[in-house]
Design brief:
With 792 residues, the chain is α+β, with helices and mostly antiparallel strands. Helix 9 packs across helix 11. The relative contact order is 0.06. Strands 27-30-31-35-34-33-32 form a 7-stranded mixed sheet. Strands 11, 13, 14, 21, 22 and 23 form a 6-stranded mixed sheet that branches. A 5-stranded antiparallel sheet has the order 5-4-3-6-9, with no helix packed on it. It is elongated, with a radius of gyration of 41 Å. The protein is 25% helix and 28% strand. Strand 16 and strand 17 form a beta hairpin. The longest helix is centred in the C-terminal third of the chain and has 19 residues.
């Protein structure tokens, strides 16, 4: 929010230097970002008067002029043709700096000394639009009386203005205006706030009969007011109005637009002017647009509307997008004779959504999205009518058309002096506290309550009142005290600790952590060869994506890990192992997706194989102390190798999968070697993990070891065989371990040799060979029955 100090001082008397003002305003909550001076680069330009002239002796197009600058008469050589003796003009003296870094030095022009330069408005960084009386190509001539020669010329051009930029928080919409900042300054320095005196000269013609206003959506527009102006003269604004707009960073356009911009700055209230004669049916309808309706905006763009957007319409069509921008068809032009000034209050959320959908962020929408006070509207629309009088822009008809279906009422809340003092750690009297409330324009009632102005929706409870007391009383005056609360020691939850343990384990396995985007392209499904009917393709689409490559939320992390592996492979990193703990997003019946955290590991290298990735999974299971795990073959994932992919189960619950990536998929990612991945559900692992460790005493009795070498068909899974051995072995079988798998000349075609090491032990006695042999025979019978296994 840019506020010129000269404009601010019209509403509040400030008798401190700028640094003190800036510091105190910041301490009371209106943080000052910076202070700038307009035309700071313009120096040593004064007012002078031409008192004599003569021709240049050696140049037909040059003239030698004598110029009185108050303290002395100087000689200047000029080629300007529009100035004569007696003209009062801006003079850049020796050593002056002008716009665009131009420096003036005295010197000689064709042998004649020149001690400065006469200035045009362009050389002062200004434009002819700002100064319509300036010549198209020549020196600017003052047309004012009582100018003192030798004075600094900058103030006469609106330069030298100190502009303070404030960083206003979104909970203070009242401060997005010069009057709002003025109220804060008045409270800060305990001086009166001078609200502008609004007096409107009306003609004896009832303006309320000229138009009909109908608010069809009162929840989205709770107030709409209008005034009618006849005999309008669209022209350039007077200099004082232009200077104010320029000082605040706005470009003057014409008197009607400049008045609406003036109100936008002064009251923080957007306004719009319609050409009354172009309103079909002479009515204003505040309604939702119909799907497919179109509007050509003031920017010249045609936008398509939908039924979520609030519009201002006449009897036939939309003429403006509520709170965002007006339409081309009803804009004010030089031919306009009658205007309808609108001043309304629109729902902040509605304006924000419409502005975002259409991609139009106007000065008006920036104000509306903050949430404005509807009580300001009557002041603003009358102030606009007053400015019409002051600029002689037309005749103001009597009366205001004001529709106010949902009135905002002031909030009254109680205050507790003792609680506020205790809360802030101060000790001030009730009278002092009430005086602070009065300074911030709260109404103090007799029953220990205060009435909050409708412009302060941020104040709703005692804590808010305490904040007002603290900032006006002075944060620097609040004494330093020790913390009275009992400190607590922070710590991580069990879930966070488990995630840390998982990450440490994966790092110990040689994997590096990565972080990838959760937003992907729908093209990844084809890249992964995912079936058309797969649930993984049912991804949640983003409403306003940056592009197709970032248009959906991922349903699997495999694409992300393969992309990073591919990048490393292309950079010729020979052995790479990576992991990520990240989310996938699965659609639900509700608006929001189910966010599921996954552990993903990917690797490739000269020594990497299926058992490497399986070993990482088993290491995780061991570290997390998870029991009752099992692996089953998985041939249903199109992006995994059908014969080298397995599901990990805890009990009967599937946790995820691991294995080798399908060769065709690897080609899609530019791989020239095998790669292996696993994707496990994090929550399932955390729920199954255990922190308790059960210790057992060392065995008292010796163990007996037996090796079994068996011939089975190649398609028999060793895991199934181990499961049966453990079931048949009984309590005395304490360990089963695979130590050899062989296929070769000594084994029949289509078969393989599988060798297991079995350890038997009893807890209460020494086992005999007969007891062990009985258990082994039971195992062999089961293997032969279920797998047609034969002893070698």
């Amino acid at each position: 929010m840019n506020v010129p100090m000269s404009w601010l001082k019209e509403y509040v008397n400030i008798n401190v230097d700028l640094k003190t003002f800036v510091d105190k305003m910041t301490l009371t909550g209106s943080k000052v970002e910076k202070v700038e001076e307009s035309g700071k680069e313009i120096t040593n330009v004064v007012i002078g008067k031409v008192i004599a002239e003569e021709k240049h002796p050696d140049a037909d197009r040059l003239r030698v002029m004598k110029c009185d600058i108050g303290t002395e008469v100087i000689q200047i050589v000029t080629a300007a043709t529009n100035i004569q003796v007696g003209d009062i003009i801006p003079v850049a003296l020796n050593g002056a700096t002008l716009a665009n870094g131009l420096k003036i030095k005295k010197g000689k022009l064709r042998g004649v000394e020149s001690n400065g330069m006469f200035c045009s408005v362009e050389e002062l960084g200004l434009t002819k639009e700002q100064f319509p009386d300036a010549p198209d190509d020549g020196i600017y001539i003052f047309h004012l009386d009582n100018l003192e020669l030798g004075e600094d010329a900058k103030p006469y051009f609106g330069l030298g203005e100190q502009v303070v930029e404030y960083e206003i928080t979104s909970n203070r919409p009242d401060c997005f205006s010069i009057l709002g900042i003025a109220t804060e300054a008045a409270a800060t320095f305990n001086t009166p706030f001078l609200f502008p005196k609004i007096e409107v000269k009306e003609i004896a013609e009832d303006g309320t009969k000229f138009a009909k206003i109908n608010i069809q959506e009162p929840a989205l527009c709770n107030r709409y007011a209008a005034r009618i102006i006849k005999n309008v003269h669209v022209k350039n604004s007077p200099k004082w109005l232009q200077d104010k707009l320029i000082s605040a960073g706005l470009r003057p356009i014409n008197n009607i637009v400049d008045i609406t911009n003036y109100l936008l700055l002064e009251f923080g209230q957007p306004m719009h002017a319609f050409d009354y004669d172009k309103l079909v049916g002479k009515e204003i309808n505040v309604r939702l647009a119909q799907n497919g309706e179109e509007l050509k905006t003031l920017l010249g763009d045609t936008v398509k509307l939908d039924d979520t957007m609030l519009v201002i319409a006449d009897k036939e069509k939309p003429i403006a997008i509520a709170g965002v921008m007006g339409g081309e068809d009803t804009k004010v032009t030089e031919e306009t004779k009658t205007i309808l000034f609108e001043c309304a209050n629109f729902n902040a959320f509605s304006v924000r959504q419409t502005s975002k959908k259409l991609g139009i962020m106007s000065d008006s929408s920036k104000k509306y999205v903050k949430g404005l006070d509807p009580e300001n509207i009557s002041y603003a629309v009358n102030r606009a009518a007053q400015l019409i009088n002051m600029t002689e822009s037309g005749d103001v008809l009597s009366g205001i058309i004001d529709i106010y279906p949902i009135k905002r009422t002031a909030l009254t809340i109680g205050y507790d002096v003792d609680w506020i003092n205790s809360y802030l750690g101060i000790n001030i009297s009730k009278e002092e506290m009430e005086e602070i409330f009065t300074r911030v324009r709260f109404v103090v009632n007799k029953d220990n309550t205060v009435t909050i102005p409708t412009s302060r929706p941020d104040v709703t409870m005692n804590a808010d009142l305490a904040e007002e007391v603290a900032r006006i009383y002075g944060y620097d005056k609040i004494p330093v005290t020790l913390e009275r609360a009992t400190p607590t020691v922070g710590g991580k939850t069990y879930e966070q600790q488990t995630v840390d343990k998982i990450k440490n384990t994966l790092r110990n396995c040689g994997a590096y952590g990565i972080l990838t985007y959760t937003i992907e392209s729908p093209k990844v499904f084809d890249k992964l060869n995912i079936a058309e009917n797969s649930s993984l393709r049912n991804a949640l689409k983003i409403q306003n994506p940056l592009g197709e490559d970032f248009s959906i939320l991922r349903t699997t992390t495999i694409n992300s890990i393969l992309n990073v592996l591919s990048t490393n492979n292309n950079k010729r990193n020979e052995n790479v192992a990576l992991y990520e703990v990240g989310k996938v997003f699965l659609k639900t019946d509700k608006d929001l997706p189910n966010e599921v955290e996954k552990i993903t590991v990917g690797l490739y290298g000269t020594d990497a194989d299926f058992f490497t990735i399986k070993g990482i999974a088993e290491t995780l299971i061991k570290v997390l102390n998870i029991k009752n795990t099992n692996y089953t073959r998985n041939q249903n994932l199109n992006f995994m190798h059908p014969g080298r992919c397995a599901n990990l189960l805890i009990g009967k619950k599937e946790v995820g999968f691991l294995g080798e990536v399908h060769p065709e998929v690897l080609k899609n990612y530019g791989f020239s070697q095998k790669a292996y991945v696993l994707e496990l559900d994090l929550k399932t692992l955390i729920d199954a993990s255990k922190t308790e460790i059960v210790y057992k005493s060392l065995p008292k009795f010796p163990s007996i070891t037996r090796d079994l070498a068996l011939l089975v068909n190649r398609d028999i899974l060793v895991g199934d065989m181990i499961k049966l051995i453990n079931e048949r072995g009984g309590k005395i079988l304490v360990n089963t371990e695979l130590f050899d798998v062989y296929e070769g000349e000594q084994v029949n075609a289509g078969q393989k040799s599988v060798a297991f090491n079995l350890i038997f032990r009893a807890e209460d006695k020494t086992l005999t060979d007969e007891e062990v042999q009985k258990s082994i025979q039971k195992i062999l019978n089961g293997l032969e029955t279920n797998f047609n296994a034969k002893l070698r």
